[in-house]
Amino acid sequence: MKFKGINHLAMVTGDMDATIRFWRDLIGMRLINGFGKDGFRHYFFEIDEKNTLAFFEWNGAQAVEQKDHGVPFKGPIVFDHIAFGVESNEAAWQLKDKLEAAGFECSGMIDHGFIHSIYSFDPNGIPIEFCYEVGGHDIRKNPVIRDDAPLASAAEGAEPQPGKWPEVTRPTPVEERHIISS
C-alpha cells in the first residue's frame, strides 16, 4: 500500500473567524472548502497540492492550555505538535517575523540535524512547528535512528515488517461496500 500524504488533519476551534485570520491571512494557507450546519462548521486550508488542515468549529470549544513542544507531559494527551515543512531557510525566518509581528511568541531557530525549526502556537493553543530540510540529510532516502538503546521494533529497520499483525481473512465483499453521506 502506498499512502499519498496526509489528506487532512482535523483540529477543533471555538473561534473560526480567528482561525481563518491566522491560517489564511497570517500563515498564507488558502481556505479551499467549508461547510456548516446545526451548530458546527468544518473548514479546510490548503497546506500544499495534496494535504490540508481542517478545523471543526464547535460552540463552547475552548483553546487548549499551551504545552511546550517536546516537553514531557503526564496525563491524557493526543499529540505534541504539528510540523509544517517550508521551502527554505528564508521562508522559515519570514514566518517567524510574521508571527512575532502579529504578537505570537516564537522560538529561536532550532537545529535538529536534518531540519531547522521554529515553534509557536495558533490562536487555539495548538503547538505548531515550521521547518525546512537541511541539505545532505534526506532521512526518507537514508533513514537514521540515533538512539542509544533502540527498541527491538525500531532495530528491525525502516520497512514494514510482515507477519506482525493478523492477515485479513474476510475482505469486505464488493456488494457490501457502501458509502454513507455526511
* H/E series: EHEEEEHEEEH
What fraction of the residues are assigned to beta strands by DSSP?
A: 25-35%
What is the annotated CATH architecture of the domain at 80-142? Roll
Shape: globular
Multimerization status: single chain
Describe the structure.
The chain is α/β, with parallel strands linked by helices and 182 residues long. Among the domains are: 7-62, 2,3-Dihydroxybiphenyl 1,2-Dioxygenase, domain 1 (Roll); 80-142, 2,3-Dihydroxybiphenyl 1,2-Dioxygenase, domain 1 (Roll). The chain is built from three helices and eight strands. The chain has a four-stranded mixed beta sheet, with helices on one face. A four-stranded mixed beta sheet has the order 5-8-7-6, covered by helices on one side. Strand 6 and strand 7 form a beta hairpin. The longest helix is centred in the middle third of the chain and has 13 residues, at 89-101. The chain is globular, with a radius of gyration of 20 Å. The protein starts with 7 loop residues before the first strand and ends in a 27-residue tail after the last helix.
In short:
Helix content is 15%, strand content 26%. With 182 residues, the chain is an alpha/beta fold. Among the domains are: 7-62, 2,3-Dihydroxybiphenyl 1,2-Dioxygenase, domain 1 (Roll), CATH 3.10.180; 80-142, 2,3-Dihydroxybiphenyl 1,2-Dioxygenase, domain 1 (Roll).
